[in-house]
Amino acid sequence: MMSAGLFCGIKRACLLGSSRNFGMNLNNNQQNHSVSVRTWGRRRMPAETENIFARSAVAVSFFLAAICLAACPVSAAAGDDDGIAVVVSDHTRPFVQAMEGFNSGILPEPTVYYIDDNPELVRHRLSEKKFRLVVAIGPVAAHMVWAIVKNPAERMVLMVLDPQDLLADSHVCGVHLRVPASDQFNLIRKKIGGGAQIGVLYNPEENAEWIGRGADAAVQAGVELIPLTVTERQEVLKVLLAADRNIDTLLFIPDPTVISEAMVAHLVKKALLRGIASVGYNRFFLEVGAVLSFNIDYRAVGVLGAEIAAERLSGRGCALYPPPFDVGWNNRAWELVRRTRRAR
C-alpha cells in the first residue's frame, strides 16, 4: 500500500503542476528518484505493442488522478494564497533555532524570509503576496509584519520579550520570552528553600509591570521579593552592595540597564563572595557562577509556535503563551554559597 506521504506528493503533482512550487518539487523528485527505462534497441516496437502501452498509460493516469482526489487533503498552500510565511529578524542563533523548530512542526513547508538578507525585498514580498499566515520571529520582524499585515488573524509572533508592549497590541498571538514569575519563584523555593529573600535589580522604566506582578507571585510561592531600583548602569553595583544583608538570592531578569556580559559576571562574583545565590535566565549565568538558571528552549518555542499556527489556520482562537524552558543547576556554586553563609 502506498504511504500517505506518497499520496500527498502525487496530489501536489496533480493540482499544482503549473505553479512555481511544483516546478521546484519536480526538480527535487528528479534528483531523488531515478526511473529505469527499458529500450527495444534500434528496432521499432510493433504497432500492437505501442497501442497496448498507450492504453496502459491512459489507464494509469486516470488511476493516479483518482488517488490524488480521494486520498490527500488539500495542503495549506493550495488555493489563491501562498500558504505560510516566516519572517526572521536576522541569523542570530536563537532566531534560527526557533525557525527550525517551527519548520519541523508545520506542513507544508513555509516560505522563509530573513530581513538581514534584504529588508526591502522582504517588505516588498509581504506587501505583494497574500499569505494565509505570517509568523514573525524576533522584534524587527514583528515590527515589519505588524506594519504590513493588518488582519490580526493572519499574523503571529515568536521570540519577542514583551510583544504586547512592543507592538502596542493587547491581542497578540504567539509565544513570548518571559518565563512566568510564578514559575521562577516556585522553582527558587523548591531548589534553594522556602522563605528566600529575593532581590531583583531593575529599571522601573523597563520592568515596573513585572515587579508588580512578581510581588503577588512571590507571596503565592512563599518567598519575599525585594525590588532593587536602578536608573542607570553606574548605580547597579552600589545598590546591590547596599542590599547584601537584606537578600539571600539575586534574581536577574531581562533589563538593559542591568544586563551585559561583563556586568553580570561581576555581579554574580560579588554575590558569591557574600553568600548570595544568583539566579539567571540562560546558561551563561551558570557559566559565570549562578546557582540556578531558567533556560528557554528556542527550538521548542518554534515547535510550540507551529502548534499554535495549525490551530489558527483551522479557525480556532489564539493567545499569547510563555516559552518552554528547562532548569539548570550549578551544584559547585551552591556549595560555595552555603560555605560562605556558614562563615558569615
Gap between N and C termini, in Å?
Answer: 74 Å
Q: Which fold name is given in CATH as the topology of the largest domain?
A: Rossmann fold
User: What is the number of E strands?
Assistant: 12
**Structurally, how many domains make up the residues?**
3
Into which percentage range does the β-strand content fall?
A: 15-25%
**Which consecutive residue ranges, at least 5 long each, have pLDDT under 50?**
1-80
How many separate helices?
A: 14
CATH class membership of the largest domain: Alpha Beta
- Overall morphology: elongated
Structural class: alpha/beta
Share of helical residues: 40-55%
**CATH H-level superfamily title of the largest domain:** Response regulator
Enumerate the strands of the largest sheet in spatial order, edge to edge or round the barrel: 2-1-3-4-5-11
If classified by CATH, what would the architecture of the largest domain be?
Answer: 3-Layer(aba) Sandwich
Largest sheet: 6 strands, parallel
Order of helices and strands: HHHEHEHEHEHEHEHEHEHEHEHEEH
